[in-house]
Amino acid sequence: MFGVTAGAGSAAILVPEAATAQLAPVPPAPGDGPLADSAIGTPPTAAPLSRLTGDQRLFQANFSSRGLLSTQVDEWVLEAQRWVNRAYAGRPGFVPAPESGRTGWPTMFALTRALQLELGLSGSQLSDTFGPTTLSLLASKFGEIKAGTPENVVRIVQCGLYCKGYWGESISGSYGQATEASVAEMRSNMGFTDGRRTVAPKEFKALLTMDAYVVVENGSGLVRSVQQWMNRKYVDQSWFFIIPCDGHSSRDVAKALIYALQMELGVAGANGTYGPGTRSAVKARAPITVGMSDSAMASYVRLFQAAMIFNKYEVAFDGLYAQPVADQVRTFQLFVGLPLNGTGDYQTWSSLLVSNGDPERRGDACDCVTEVTAARAAALAQAGYRVVGRYLSNVPGSTLDKKIKPTELATIFAAGMRVFPIYQTYGGAASYFNEQQGARDASLALEAASDYGFERGTTIYFAVDFDALDNDITAAIIPHFRGIGKAMELYGNPYRIGVYGARNVCSRLFGQGLTVTSFVSDMSTGFSGNLGFPMPLNWAFDQISTVTVGSGAAAIQIDNNIYSGRDYGQAKVTTRDKLDTYFNPAHRPAIDDRFTEYIDQVESNTANLVHTVSESLDVIVAYDEQITNLSRSYGVRKALVQSEIYWEYWKRDVLDAGVDALVQSWYVYRHQREAWEQVPVGPAPTPPLVVREDCSTGIAQIFAATAIRARNWAMQRGLIPGNQLDAEDWHVVENVWNSLHDDGTYNIATVPLVLFQGADEVGVTGLRLNYTETELKAIFARYNGTGAGAELHGREVFGVYQIFESFNATTR
């Protein structure tokens, strides 16, 4: 969970050299003999300094990561797990810790249950939660943990210290100098400055969490300073529990900040939730303006500064609202779409503290599951809405019909509004998301969007419609969107990828480069991925409330969205002839027969071919989804792509494999030569007898040079993203050739680009569904080169085109 880096502060315990000679022998390391504890016998006596230093080897390993939760195997964490399991084995309600040597919640839960047993709870009274009963019993029975506290309670503290990365005095059960020093360091990291070396009940509760108290994972030192200040200021409040000081805002930190604000404003029933009472109190308070400052007792300005800092806006944390703070506030207001007044007013407070901000704001965008009729479109436009989100699909098996209706888009456009498309089938649980499902969703979304006529470059928002935890995002959602991206790339990148989801989902996907813009489900204020997380940098639509617009037949319930302008939506769609769809297996026998008849008419060579007509059709069927989606992506007939792939695969002869081998041997030599040039020891490598740097290869028999030329042409015209490929760099040529040779999907994705680039060369421009016979023959001919042989190729492949087209037309 947390990276292992140097901890904050140094608490190394230095033993004078003169004293070391008088020390008793160091106790055995774990594994060398029994570690004394009350569960297995009376602890042996040991000199204080011997106890303090413990096993120097393990001490040094721990010391390198003071104050952090261990993510690597740590022998003392392992010993803590072994001790708690030995000490409480068989006790009803106790759940053993995993003996892994890694800190985690199961270990903290085991230590919590151990403490509850020491407090007199038993059986079903035990819980993983360090709740009010545990805290109250701890305060009344033991108070602050210090020297003289029962040994097993001290050992639980020492185990917790090890799990946090501090020295735990060999789990001795004696609250000696080493334990005091570690507790003092931990408390200092928490933000306390009083130097106390005992463990108060709230500090014990914090010890048995996965919270860190030093900056981790690129956290902010400024955020940490605010967290430490909050711990110092509010620890004595009954509602406050020690928060992490790791340099990151979080749900618990955000709730603590709201609690603090409620206390500042005297809100009755304070609960850490930014509800109606808190909103009213903030509205009633005058906005914070330049020159205002906190008095000795008040902290209103500091709390506002803390909210800015937690939202990643660096301002002074000094209780003075100076002009630089106001300037940063204007920057924040601009980013989230608020009036630019530079003050700490109600709307700004709200946007800083809760995901939906001021839900009374009317946005310029909306989304809905209901058909936008002409009357409803007029009502929306009159209410000031300019962009409408509508669904490309329904959830299979659901009775809710939310997908776009025929003519609905034209109705919305006629009212002067634009549209952004949303794709959602299930998407309501982590179990739905994986890379394979992402690829499937990309294909289905492309099919639906192209059917509606959405043009290339439109952003489709794929929905993550549940409260995804951070580990859900890592394990399921990121792979899912990686699958979407890979599939869209194979289909020619027809649509840009957006996401609908909580803030953390949106930000993490954007950080991975998997989305362009985000549609943020900020209306779900209770989502763990919203509270405590700043607005995603790429937000386009911010869903903040549900409202009803219009009345009577014009009434429509919508989700009200703030609109950033990062995605304008679409003002039109392209009306096309019906697009091609997937291969119909029922046609297979008839197509085989047609091609068997057709080869009798072929004038070009048919001797020594390695694939049959039927095997060639197998390839077309195997890659049908990709071929279909490429045709939809580029707005051309599917037969255009099918024909060239079929023909080239069928026409592969027995010599082609040998030529491929020559190219491969050439690049083996190039790598050997390159390595020798870097370290010129011994004779230079000998080049192959026959040099072949490039050849046509793979399913559709494409030269690397041809692919590079076609891909660069497509990039220049915005058909595909990417940087220009350097055809003079043999490494680039080799990489492209290997991709063509080894990766069928890459080879097939290159086919339409070669066809389009060749068409451009012969004067057939544009991507069209209705090329003429003359144009098609010219395009096919250029794929093969120039001259009489290429013209024959064009005529013969056109015959293949006619066969495929005749069958494709029946399924449109």
Automatic annotation (TrEMBL):
Coiled coil: none annotated. InterPro entries: GH (IPR017853), PGBD-like_sf (IPR036365), Rv2525c-like_Glyco_Hydro-like (IPR015020). Signal peptide: none annotated. Residues 379-562 form the Rv2525c-like glycoside hydrolase-like domain. Residues 24-46 are annotated as: Disordered. This is DUF1906 domain-containing protein. It comes from Kribbella hippodromi. The lineage of its organism: Bacteria, Bacillati, Actinomycetota, Actinomycetes, Propionibacteriales.
